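Mods, move this if it's the wrong board.
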Amino acid sequence: MKQLTSGQIRQMFLDFFQEKGHEIVPSASLIPKDDPTLLWINSGVATMKKYFDGSVAPANPRMTSSQKSIRTNDIENVGRTARHQTLFEMLGNFSVGDYFKKEVIPWAFELLTSDKWFGWDKDRLYVTYYPEDKETKELWEQVGIASDHLVPAEDNFWDIGQGPSGPDSEIFYDRGEKYDDLAPDDPENYPGGENERYLEVWNIVFSQFNHTAAGTYEPLPRKNIDTGMGLERVVSVFQDAPTNFETDLFLPLIKKTETFSDKRHYGDNTTDDIAFKVIADHIRAITFAIGDGALPSNEGRGYVIRRLLRRATVNGHQLGIDGAFLYQLVPVVGEIMQSHYPHVLEQKDYIQKIVKSEEDRFNATLNDGIKLLDDLIQKTKEAGQTEIAGKDAFRLYDTYGFPLELTEEYAKDRGIKVDEAGFDQEMEQQRNRARSARGSKGSMKVQRDLLLDIKTLSEYVGYEQLTVSAAELQDIIVDEQLVDDVKAGTAELIFDRTPFYAEMGGQVADIGTIYNEAGKVVATVTDVQHAPNGQNLHTVKVTGELKRDDHYRLEVDRQFHAGVERNHTATHLLDQSLRNVLGGHTEQAGSLVKPDYLTFDFNHFGSVTKEDLAKVERMVNDHIFAALPVETVVTDQKTGKEMGAIALFDDKYGDQVRVVKAGDFSVEFCGGDHVHNTSQIGLFKILSESGVGAGIRRIKAVTGKYAFDYLNDEEKMLNEIAQTVKVPTNEQAPGRVKELQNQIKELESTQESLEAKLANQEAQDLFTNPETINGITLITGQLENANMNQLRELADMWRNEARSNVLVLGTATDGKANLLVAVDEAHVKAGIKAGDLIKSIASNIQGGGGGRPNLAQAGGKNPAGLPDAFKAAADWLATK
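Not the wrong board. Structure tokens:
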């Protein structure tokens, strides 16, 4: 067998078919283009559909590719079987109405057996074929496949329903007797059966029929060839690997993971092996998916990435890996795949940043979530039950971000099921709560039919004036009915003219007052929305009589409106400043403009640094202090774009658009209200910057009086700190605080040192009195002056001094109990596992825990149970 790397094998396949006149087609993005039927590209032929269905004619009817693909329908099998992957590469050659069986079968045989190419022994090849497809059988015999290596199979017919279909032929490689996992007479011990010896490496589909709507199979006028060879499987043959994971496509990832896994090694035990495999598989899929433009989120492709990342993180936790580590595997993926996918290494910094951000978010709750899940499993077992309640599984999802599938897998490994129906019920109740929380604006949908029939015209004049003296009341809506008058309660009104802005584009609606012709207040405006036909629909609280066709004075709350104007113009300055400081990739993803604050959402992965935030804030204020004129130009879209206006949502703009300019600094399409000069904003202050979604950041800021009040409060707080730390000026406060922090650290260090000495003294007394149980020496004891870190240090001392075979230590602090179990290496190999022992005794302190075979720990809320835990440990060892 030739010694080839995965990169050489891939290239050899492509070179072979290039010599046969095929065009090498680059691997397409994992994100399907113009194909809403697919979440991911899941096969080589998926990118060729446009050619096979005739919608696009290829420049060359012969094509070959190595196409990266993702499938997650059987994700739970990854790591548990030899050849399940979420991301895989499919080598393929395709003919669109060109060559057919007589060409492709000899080529396949040549590639597999020629010394120039794969050079496999032809006697190790077995081929299945559709029994009625005699031509295929004869062609395989002609090229040199022995008759007894040709296996008829009824399921060798590719058919997905209406459309192209035809027989197919699968090629198997006999890996030899050492891979026999079944008895010779087992009915599955044959090429095509469920066994490890005969490995399917290639499938050739002869697409020659059209499966009609009537259920008939009509010959296609142009026959096609579609083949698929799994790269990972072929590499395992060349590299004589028991599974796909022992190849150069995965082993570097596994070896790198070993360096994070606290002395655990691949091959040590089955459970750990699965975790290593899951991590290696998932980081490949995560890396390529993000590299192709997908981002973690809670739906669609983003949810797949998030789920893969969380599964990998949990498996890392099972290997004893704490903290983010997956992001460090991204460059390893890039190095493995560099020969065919150089863009991975080129994007590694970007991909790593996204992966680490997701890891950090999940790790923040992972330990608490796993502890809760372990507790639930323990309590379920103690209660004699076999199923975790749906509400508990939902709590894990809602509070700790555990997808249901993750909880189910974790519980399944421990012999417990999850009440999926109960989980779904809790999820639906949450959706109902969310619907209720949206409030009364939902009534717009109920009234939609009525509003569609209202065609009266309504003009917004709020750009020029905030008071209209004689607005005609054209329509009154009460309880979804048109009425002629109203004297109390809540109503919705449409006037022929209005100064009240209807909520749109992030700018909140105006509020204000309605007066009758006698100057009496008859209503207060609490909200304004756009009706279906474009009118401004005012929601009002009625305090007097309102009649249709009468005239009223409408007054906008000027202070409220002025605050909105300041914040809206500041939002434009912020948008441009972010682009200038962070780069052009930052695009607005949403905003909220209120009178007292603003929020601005934008595309950017990772938090904005304090330095960059300071630059942005400085830039906004510089353009406020520059007193730039703010002008509005009404023009057509084309002219607006030529002016350099930023278009945020093109499909929402009409033929005529409003372009808002703040000097030459900011130019945007905008239908909202603005100040006339940036100096009217007064002052701009960023309050916070945070993430609100996958790749979406949010800045919250204040302007004018609110910014002054914020800074004034900050100064008061600094004054209080200066007084507390007893320095004469505010400027000296930070230095004094640092001095005090250093003093506290020194005192804490001294305290820890003293506590460690006390713990060591206590431990020395314990270490001198081991007891022997069933031939195993055991030391147990409770320490009064120790924390968990010190218990671990004592365990290291115990191990170095070889004081006993098993150590069980406990300590009580602040009404809580901690347990630690350590086992020497000899007895770990003999089957005494620290993790098993800790789980057996943790219930005595009303807690749970786990860990590695040689070291485990648990926490609980019943310190009084520590003596019982020590006794339970002795009883447990007595059974071994």
